[in-house]
From TrEMBL:
InterPro entries: LMW_PTPase, Ptyr_pPase, Ptyr_pPase_sf, Tyr_phospatase_low_mol_wt. Keywords: Hydrolase, Protein phosphatase. This is Low molecular weight protein arginine phosphatase. Transmembrane segments: none annotated. Residues 1-144 form the Phosphotyrosine protein phosphatase I domain. PANTHER family: LOW MOLECULAR WEIGHT PROTEIN TYROSINE PHOSPHATASE, LOW MOLECULAR WEIGHT PROTEIN-TYROSINE-PHOSPHATASE ETP-RELATED.
Amino acid sequence: MNVLFVCTGNTCRSPMAEGLFRAINEAKHENHLALSAGLFTAPGAEPTPNAVKAVAADVDISEHRSRAVSPKFIDAADVVIGMTTDHKNVLLRQYPFDKDKIFTLGEWAGTNEEVEDPFGQDQSVYDACAAQIKQLLEKGWTKLEK
């Protein structure tokens, strides 16, 4: 299964989700693929240092570079996961024919939680965000096993 994670700038939440997904995938010896992109990016931007640190115990995302969502990424994905309802709504407006595969991470996990943007906040906020993302990924993983 190909999963695309989407946030705003592709420097915090979606790179953390992509990296954590890959770490879980490897630990479970699965062969799912993950990619992340942003709705409003500065292409090539590095992940924030706090995001790198927040997931460092599980995965190294320091080499990630931001990229914009594109039709090619949407087409290749089996599931497109935004971090918030706002991300989902933008994706639905831009890709209405793909509505059946666009969710928020909270929806996908069955909790309907929003993953709020930690950008510009201290490390504790990033750590909490990474922990939330990891928990939601683990809850939603059963959908990949069907």
